[in-house]
Structure formats: C-alpha cells, structure tokens
Amino acid sequence: MSSVWFKKHFLRSGSAANPGSAESLRRGVEQQLPAAPLYRRPKFLRGVCSGERLPGRRPIYCPPRDKPLQWRTGYAEVINAEKSEFNEDQATCCQISVRRREIGMEEEQDWLILCSNQYLVGYYWALFDGHGGPDAAIIASNYLHYCIKQKLEEVVEGITEAQPPMHLNGCCICPSDPQFVEEKQIQQEDVVIGALENAFQECDEVIGQEMEATNQSGGCTALAALYLQGKLYVANAGDSRAILVQKQSVVPLSSEFTPETERQRIQQLAFLCPKLLAEEFTRFEFPRRLKGNDVGQKVLYRDYSMAGWGYKTVEKADLKYPLIHGHGKQTRLLGTLAVSRGLGDHQLKVIDTDIEVKPFLSCIPQVKVFDFASCNIKEDDVLVLATDGLWDILSNDEMAQIVRSFLDENRTDPYRFSELARCLVHTARGKKNGHQWILDGNSPASYDDISVFVIPLYKRDEDC
Length: 464
What we know:
The chain has helices spanning about 5-10, 20-30, 135-155, 175-185, 190-215, 265-270, 390, 395-410, 415-430, 460-464; strands at about 75-80, 90-100, 120-130, 220-230, 230-235, 240-245, 250, 280, 300, 310-315, 320, 325, 330-335, 345, 365-370, 380-385, 430-435, 435-440, 450-455. It is built from 10 helices and 19 strands. A hairpin with an 8-residue loop joins β9 (about 300) and β10 (about 310-315). About 25% of the residues lie in helices and about 20% in strands.
C-alpha cells in the first residue's frame, strides 16, 4: 500500500504555493524531498497543550471538558524532567469504521473520519512511547489505526460469520473445510488478532520507509486497545502496560517486552543467524561480564534452549560483549536498546559498528482478549493504559488502590475519569524539590514522559 496519503496529510511539503491547498500538498510530495513529520501533541489536546518546553515545569495536560473523549475516557500526560526537548509519547483515541471492501474502492479517503455506521464500528485507544526522537511515535499515532482498519476490512467476512470460513470468496474446494477449521479451533477473535498483527507489521514497514526517506532515526513502543463485537483486544509491542482494575481483582492485559523477558527468543535468533552478531557479541548469558581470568573455568550460563542454568567451560569467544547485558531497567539489547519489541528503529546500529539492532527488535505485538460476556462488569471497572513512566513508580496493586479509592470518593463527578487520569500522572510525576522531582515519601519520582488513558467499561457491551 502506498504511503502517499500519509505524506500528503502529515509531512511538511515546503511548497511555496498556498500551503492549505491540496494541490500544493501534492506538489510538495511529488517534487520535493520528504521532510520529517510535524511535531504536535494528540489532536484531542489541541487548544490545551502548546507542546512547548517550559523550563523547570512539568504541567499536566488533559482534553478540554467541552470535548470529551469516547466512552467518557480520561486522559492525562506530562513531559519528562529535562530528559529530552520533546514529549516523545503520543496518543490516539478514535472510532474505526470497518466496511466491506468494494471492488475498485479507492483507498485515498479522508479516513480520519472513522465514525460511520456502514458496517462494524470499533473503538480504539493507543499509546506510543518514542525513543531517539518523537518522529516514529508521531507516524504511528497517525497511521496504525488506518492499518488496523484496512486489515480488518480485508477479512471482514471472516469476523462476521459464526465460524471463520476457509475461503473468503465463498469457494468450497473441500466439503470438509468447516470441519478442518473447527479442528484447529479457529474462532472469530483469531482472525481479528491476525489482522492486528498484520497491521503492526505494515505500520512498522511504513515507518521504516518514511524515516529513511527523511533521514530520521528512532522508534517507539506501541500499546493499542480495540473494542469490537463485544470483545476488547489489547495489542502490545513494548514496555507500556494495560491493566483491568475491578473491585476485587486486577487483570493484566499486557506483558512488557524487554531484553530480559525475551531472552530466549533473542538468543535463538542469534543461534540461527550468528552473522547478525558480527563476531562482536556472544549470545550466551552469564551472571556477570566475564574477564580474562575466567577462561578455562566452569561458570554458570544460559542459552536459548534453557530456562534454568548450567555450567560451561569459558572460552575466549565467551569474553565478547553479551547480546543481552544488565539487569532490570538497565538491561540493554546489544548494549543499545532497552526494549525488545516496538516500531521503527530500522536505522539503529550499535555504536561504532555496522551491526543492526532491528533484526532482534520485533514489531509483532502480543494480543490479549477480554470478552465482556464472560465477566460481570461493574460500574467502577476501568481499563488503564499507561506508558512506562507511570509503571516505573506504581505497581499494579498500587495503581488499583488509587483507582478504587478515587472513584469511590468522586461518584457524583461527571469528569471523574479524566480527573483520575490526572491524579495518576500527578502521583507518578511527584513534586519539585530544588532540582529534583520527588514522591510524597521523598523517594525519586518519574523523570520520564507519562501518558495515561482511563477507560470506563461499564455497560459498554450494551451501548455499542
């Protein structure tokens, strides 16, 4: 699929003609070199957040009260504490209209208007945490939902039948096709999951093309939630997190992907394609970085096939820098990147080498499904999506305690979900004390960008 539509709507054209005309935008794309995406905050914050750095300050921004988000969703964000010039987080909240794809139907439509009821309507929220600059997160926030819409439309017949058909075109090559589908236990939600996985992959490819064309670098994590046909699909590629907070329980709906959590996948790729390490790294994991005196000694190690630990005799090759090194938030992939899944980073190389990080960085998300019909949703049950700036400070249980207490104390406030999002960001940001940001207990607060969605779920399966 061509990215001309994206370029026309989101890249600086540089045209000397009327900048607002479609013709000048088109000429800008066709006749001039591509430029970086325009930096801006999420559309729903327009008029509220200028996006400019305020020295020494970290104001919290929320959507204006007279322009509420879908489902009365709460949202809040704050920029980092001088970590970078820009807030590298981005967010999207919109409806997605999924229609049957007519033969000859043009793709180039104003797909930002995604609220028609011609067929299926989905509800979409997403957070993108950029690194190495905001560009990849900006592209993803403007493009991933279009990729999802397109991929769902390509398989729409497969997600509206009680059982996905073997052939979308209605052919019956083998009379036993329905039986084979049933034996594989393929359900509607599996087709939706496949569409989401393909959408992430296509978005990643477009980001790579645009970043290369504009001579930009960087990437982003991506966490997306899609409500469709009574089910909530949470797709995660990175270290942002989604949790469902209920009165008596906390249900994790995503898992963080870091070099530590994906050690075996990454080591196995290095085993299968050793040339990717360029003789500079070892795929083996050791409790610490080995030294020359360790050669000939038997030490603890792990390889891709091992969940436990074994012992091996150290060879000189084992003294190379580990493929995965560090612990906790300090763990790095190839000494470079702190996440193992995400979008972009196609141009990222290990410093002072030609070793590419991207082969080890997967863009495929893990998708978890929450079926509203299988759970009795109560009034104060909410889905919380947040970037890692929040989770560096709050655990799932601490988050749930704040959510329950706040909603219980603010039952009559029509803006309580927005205020809850603000409260969560404020808690993780802390307060300024001299040159530091601290929490109430004087421990360090989050210095990272923080973005939070609070999505109320009560009776949504009836209303949508």
